[in-house]
Amino acid sequence: MTLSEFNETDRQSAVETVRPALDIQRWIEEIVDGRPYESTDDALAAARDAANPFTDAEVDQALSHHPKIGERAAGESKEADLSRNEQAGLGESTEDIKAELARGNAEYEERFGQVFLIRAAGRSLPEILSELQRRLQNTPEDERTEVADQLRQIALLRIEGILS
To answer: Count of CB atoms within 10 A of residue 115's CB?
Structure first.
């Protein structure tokens, strides 16, 4: 969808256009209700502002939609399709990397009680593993901050793609 189409579409269609980027209703409504935007950069600035900060409840809600890193997103939704495309850019993984990701994901979930979330776009599997290992040393408070930042990065990349 072009920015012009997004600006001109009805509210419900605009909401459904934004939702795959990040399914947080307040965030979606702030972006949609801020229309019209003069440029994609203006829309991205509005999305960034609406995402800062996310509440803990919003982060929890968003995490419930994300697959584990290294696992293929299930379903036919636009969000699942975006996730599969983002993770496809990571390239092929060896059995060793798959095993390390599985171990790291399990340790992370045990430590923090949630799925490990990271912006996959533009990263390699070794970089993601390194980040996973680094973040396992975070305090729960520091990790909440990092997760919210990763959600923002993912959402902004997706909004940019949707409106381009």
So the answer is: 17
